[in-house]
Structure formats: structure tokens, C-alpha cells
Amino acid sequence: MIDSIKREAERRSITRLCHFTPSRNLVHILTGETGILATKHLQKNERSVFTQTDLERLDRHEGYICCSIQYPNAWYFDKAKSKDILFKDWVVLFINPKYLWMSGTRFCPRNAASGYGRGIVEGEQGFKAIFADAIPGAYGITRKRSPNHLVCCPTDDQAEVLIPDQIGISDILAIAVPSETQAKNEAVRLDILGISEDKYKFVVAPDLFNKYNLSNLIRSGKRPDERPWKVGEEL
């Protein structure tokens, strides 16, 4: 089962998972030894760092970390950002895709919170269901794969992957931001806090932060523009 998921992921050229979070959480993630922790495993003092959006789990899977395949769930991402009126800077973390075929990972072909998590399934069946030709969604709307749909992307933009317990810090491949300005600001903050630049890589990818642009690109078979950014470099 695990091997079959890996083969299918490689066939679809899936190179990463995505997890979005307010940028202020970067310090906690990059300075600790635990990487990204599921809500259930956050200590009381750690919970104070995260917003209510981070801690809310309508899918009833507090022991899991919500991710998406290849690109962020930009629709829920937009909703989460709108709830945080004080902190407007968010990032998307690119995660090693190996978690797709690790034991315990679960899948949902639509937003995992729908039906309080009733659509969440573990294993090959759950993984393949994400790429079905048509997926019934909210409000009676059925999401369908377009003729040019990117092969690596789920049928429903809001499909989710739930990873149990923890994502190791070494499995964070890069940090995506919407602009070079934010990349510079994040780098300065991390430098002030003594976090070495060899612990992170930035990617400027504005379309990942725009739900309409991202969805249209995926369904037209086009990959969003992504540009690596390093401290001291100009795009």
C-alpha cells in the first residue's frame, strides 16, 4: 500500500506538500527541535503563539497536521487570513512529499472540516480518491477535473492531507512568500533572532496567495511562477 502511493505520487510528479501558517510562527518552528507539531501535541506555552485559526479543528483530527498536495488550499488559506486582523503576513511551507506514503497519513478529497471529517480516509484508497474525475462538494456543487488539469493537483482545490503528530524541521524544503518585500522582512526578523540563513530557503510565489489565480492556473495546466530568493539578492 505504501509503495503504491509512492509510485502514484512519483507518476504524477508530486514534489511537495504545503502547509500555511502566520509568519510569526516561523520563529517557533525554526528555533525548536520538533518542527511542525499537531495541535494536540502543543504545550500550553506553545499554544499561546498560535492563533485560534491554527487551533480550531472542525475535522476532529487534533493529532494531525493539515497539508495539501503541491499547492496550498488557497480557499481555506484566504478564510484563515481574513480571521486574523492583527497579523497579515503569512507563509506557505513546502514539505517533503514522503509523508504521503508514510504510515498513518490520511486523505480527504475536499476540505477535511466538511461533515466534521467524515470524508477522511487512510491509505491508497484515500489518496487515489483525491484525484477522482468528479468530487461532490459543498452546496451541491460537484468539482470536476478540467481537460488540462495539472496531473499533480487534486480535483478539488480544497483536498487535504492529514499528517500524524509531527513534521520534522529537516523536511521543510522552503518557505514561500507573496513578495520580495516580505522575503526581506522575514529574513531580517530571523537574522535578529539569530536564526542562520542556512536553516531556510525562501521562494517568492505570489499566485499561491491568490485563490482565483491559483485555481485558474491549475485548471488550465499552468504552473504558478515561483522564484527562489536569497538574502542579499534582488529578483
Automatic annotation (TrEMBL):
Residues 15-210 form the DarT domain. InterPro entries: DarT. It comes from the Bacteria. It holds the Pfam family DarT. GO terms for molecular function: DNA binding; glycosyltransferase activity; nucleotidyltransferase activity. Belongs to the DarT ADP-ribosyltransferase family. This is DUF4433 domain-containing protein. It comes from Brasilonema sennae CENA114.
